[in-house]
Write a structure and sequence with these properties.
Oligomer: single chain
Number of strands: 7
Helix content: 55-70%
Radius of gyration: 31 Å
Low-confidence stretches: 1-19, 515-526
Mean pLDDT: 77
Number of helices: 20
Strand content: 5-15%
Strand order of the largest sheet: 2-4-5-7-6
Order of helices and strands: HHHHHHHHHHHHHHHEHHEEHEEHHEE
């Protein structure tokens, strides 16, 4: 009997994502009438995602409500807080207390379905999802595909594969072509439906498509999973050599992060060896100069005439100057190497200490949860560790790219290409982060702009600048990205946020990076490596990086790139 593959990703965020604006508007109206009430205090905790505080104060607030609407909102918040604390039975009880009338009915049915799904009570989950469907609630495609995914998961557990296929196909129809992550997941869902029915001819092409998409998508988990699935498929088909190849690829993805760290360690050792060799060369050269000085002195003393003496003196003086210039040049190169090493070490030791310690604590927490069989908490702990690892990987990539650029080893090839697709892809990778922070991320991109630049280095710049914009923009903020042709010579990418802004002192330091050389690194303290890398790469692309900012108002960054026809 073949080994069945099941890849089931339940959208756990459903319970607290739908109708947030609807609840916010209703709650704010209530708070205007009851300023400083217990209700408003709990709602403030909820808006700030302080779910522990919500859970502590909500019972007291429920005792003082005066309307059904207030009770519905508080029961909903209590259910969300309980889910966050993994108290699913408590969450089920709270959501069940919501009323059956008005706009709250759809929200209640949907959340009850999600909780029963997490409790693996599939019949009840399906009943609530069907009730939600019957209400014909208008919602976004992005949210609807998550619900369809969950309904499909329910049907798989109930072994109703035709219905599971129907809902997974609905999910697939709502996925945009550039949403690679959702495409991979949806294709694997459908593949599993077919594979559970032994419809290999339908399932295997979908597994292969998911594998192909995952290879070009920067998500290690999906690369591992799709290659592992292909290994099982080929094993069941008795293609043992292909199965072994896929298992080996799975192992390579699993070890990739470790390998990257190992390469970094070896690189540092090579740098240390190079510094030691340079120092040894300098010592030998100094010894050689000392011997030459002795020879020169002996020749001067032994000279029989003034002309011979001056000739020998001039000769050895020129030799000494030449050697001194050579030594000075080597000392300068060594000084640059030392400063580069010291700066990289300071960045790594400062910026990695906190995430590495946090990852260590997450692993200790995960070990404790596994030991105590707290399986419901393992997923969240694992996701936190993955997020920290990806953040640390981003820092290491910046360090690696900057190090390679400083040593003229970074591949660089300027070509002509349209600007819009590149900016769209960079923005798309940050849409979910913006949504999580409730930040409006908008674009206005001209389709006809062609620039001449190195695509990969420009991707690095966009990732750093968008990451900074999201990091320093608070909730309910906006980030607007647009492109336009600035002149016959340059086109512009503009990133404008309503974040915290940059002080005049720090802005002056950042602008000073335009003419930064290696000997000025120590005077650029307080400025992140990412911005230093951006300035360096934009300058290498024959472009310009312009920054305007005002504290508590926001920051506008413009990247000027040469037009393809320039």
């Amino acid at each position: 009997m073949k080994k069945i593959i099941l890849f089931l990703l339940i959208s756990y965020n459903v319970i607290y994502s739908q109708d947030l604006e609807f609840l916010k508007e209703r709650a704010e109206i209530i708070c205007k009438e009851k300023e400083n009430s217990k209700f408003c205090k709990v709602f403030s905790f909820y808006k700030n995602s302080e779910f522990d505080s919500c859970y502590v104060h909500i019972n007291e607030s429920l005792l003082k409500v005066s309307t059904i609407e207030e009770r519905d909102i508080l029961n909903y918040i209590q259910g969300v807080s309980a889910v966050r604390k993994k108290l699913l039975k408590k969450a089920l009880n709270s959501i069940s207390l919501m009323s059956e009338s008005g706009d709250f009915k759809a929200l209640k049915e949907l959340n009850l379905g999600s909780i029963h799904l997490r409790l693996k009570d599939y019949d009840k989950a399906l009943a609530h999802y069907k009730n939600w469907e019957s209400l014909n609630v208008k919602t976004t495609d992005k949210f609807a595909k998550k619900v369809y995914h969950n309904i499909g998961i329910v049907y798989i557990h109930k072994k109703s594969y035709s219905k599971a296929k129907e809902y997974f196909e609905k999910e697939l129809s709502l996925i945009k072509e550039k949403d690679t992550l959702s495409l991979i997941r949806a294709k694997m869902d459908l593949a599993n439906v077919y594979y559970n029915q032994y419809l290999d001819s339908d399932a295997i092409p979908l597994f292969e498509e998911a594998y192909s998409l995952a290879k070009s998508y920067p998500n290690l988990e999906f690369k591992q999973l799709t290659s592992q699935n292909m290994a099982v498929v080929e094993k069941n088909r008795k293609n043992y050599q292909k199965s072994v190849d896929y298992y080996m690829e799975y192992g390579r993805w699993k070890d990739s992060i470790w390998n990257r760290d190992k390469i970094w360690e070896l690189t540092e050792k090579d740098k240390q060896l190079a510094v030691a060799q340079k120092q040894q060369e300098i010592v030998l050269q100094e010894e050689q100069l000392k011997r030459q000085a002795v020879v020169q002195k002996s020749l001067v003393i032994g000279a029989s005439g003034l002309l011979v003496f001056l000739g020998f003196l001039g000769y050895f003086y020129r030799e000494l100057r030449s050697k001194n210039r050579f030594i000075t040049k080597q000392k300068e190169e060594l000084n640059v190497a030392n400063k580069t090493k010291d700066y990289l070490f300071s960045v790594v030791s400062h910026d990695l200490r906190s995430p590495i310690n946090t990852i260590k604590r997450q692993h200790e927490k995960l070990k404790r949860q596994l030991k105590n069989k707290e399986y419901d908490a393992v997923s969240e702990t694992t996701n936190n560790a993955i997020a920290l690892t990806e953040s640390t990987s981003h820092l290491l990539n910046n360090v690696l790219h900057w190090s390679l650029e400083q040593n003229n080893q970074l591949s660089f090839k300027a070509e002509e290409y349209p600007l819009k697709p590149l900016v769209e892809q960079a923005v798309y990778n940050f849409e979910e982060i913006a949504e999580a922070k409730n930040i409006a991320l908008t674009t206005k991109l001209e389709a006809t702009i062609l620039v001449k630049a190195d695509k990969e280095s420009l991707k690095i710049v966009l990732r750093n600048l968008l990451d900074n914009a999201l990091k320093y923009t608070g909730e309910n903020g906006t980030i607007a990205i647009k492109t336009y042709k600035d002149s016959e010579e340059f086109s512009t990418i503009e990133i404008k946020d309503t974040g915290f802004g940059i002080s005049e002192e720090k802005l002056a330091k950042i602008k000073g990076l335009e003419d930064l050389s290696i000997d000025k690194i120590n005077r650029s303290e307080g400025v992140g490596l990412g911005m230093l890398l951006c300035q360096t790469l934009i300058k290498k692309n024959n472009g310009k990086l312009l920054i305007d900012s005002e504290l508590e108002v926001g920051t506008t960054i413009r990247i000027l790139l040469p037009n393809a026809s320039a």
